[in-house]
Amino acid sequence: MQIGGYQKLTLIDFPGKLAATVFTVGCSFRCPFCHNPELVEHGTWNMEHGTRTEKDFFEFLKKRRGKLDGVCITGGEPTIQPDILEFIKKIKKLGYAVKLDSNGTRPDVLKKVIDEKLVDYIAMDIKNQPKKYLKTAGVVETHCNASLLDRVELSVNLIMRSRIPYEFRTTVVPGIHTEKDFLEIAKWISGAPAYYLQEYREIRILDERLKKKTKGKKLDLEKIKESIEKNFGETRIRR
Questions:
Q1: What is the mean pLDDT of the chain?
Q2: Could you read off the pLDDT of 55-69 as tens digits, one per residue?
Q3: pLDDT confidence band for 53 (50 / 70 / 90)
Q4: Which of 67, 145, 163, 176 has its CA 20 to 30 A from that of 154?
Q5: Would the pLDDT of 142 be above 80?
């Protein structure tokens, strides 16, 4: 497992749990608004920060048993790691609940995680409505890449049919999203127990050119929330 680092305590990443958050390196998308750009490219993180070893992380978890409830696995994109299933099993053996964050590009991995009851909570990013999905995710739309959207849609269906607690979430980016996009998203994932609108913050992003698109533009998150909240168990804004 390529670990970029870990946060020793989070009160917000895993609903209802005192947790640690571990960051994996590498991602299948290139979202220009990504706030963890150093985790997207394997080489970038290694050159700038070095890597943490699994041994370091599990030694930390062993010391925190009885004090922490869970572990949030995020990235990057954890499901592209070839040993992700074994990694989760090792965490579970220590008695921790596990939350998995994913962009949905590996439904095959998500199916195994769900079928084997390896996780206690799933959070999946919804980048945009289907017609704009790949562009928003920074993926060049080619015949080969078109299957990525199919995989994302399959992941949505798998998660919604599972009996595992889950949420969907979208980072709302002025200049990329419109209010109408969220009406389409709401139709797509209608019935989900929780959907979160995450406020975009231009502090550190993958593609600095995005700042030209967002400059001077705003989206009213409260208005968007009011227009779609009937489709979900709850709709919240994360700032």
A1: 93
A2: 999 999 999 999 999
A3: confident
A4: 176
A5: no
CA-based nearest residue to 132, from 197, 182, 187? 182
Q: How many CB atoms are located within 10 Å of the residue 83 CB? A: 12
User: pLDDT (tens digit, 9 = 90+) per residue, 153-181?
Assistant: 999 999 999 999 999 999 999 999 999 99
For residue 38, pLDDT beyond 90: no
Query: What residue segments make up the domains of the chain, in order of their start?
Result: 3-238
At the fourth CATH level, the homologous superfamily of domain 3-238 is Aldolase class I (3.20.20.70)
Task: Taking each helix axis as running N to C, give the angle between helix 146-161 and helix 107-115, from 0 to 180 degrees, rounded to the nearest 10.
Answer: 20
Give per-residue pLDDT as tens, 105-120. Answer: 999 999 999 999 999 9
Amino acid identity of residue 229, one-letter, is E
Angle at 238 between CA 60 and CA 148, to 5 degrees: 80
| Region of residue 152 (left: phi > 0; alpha: psi -120 to 50; beta: else) | alpha
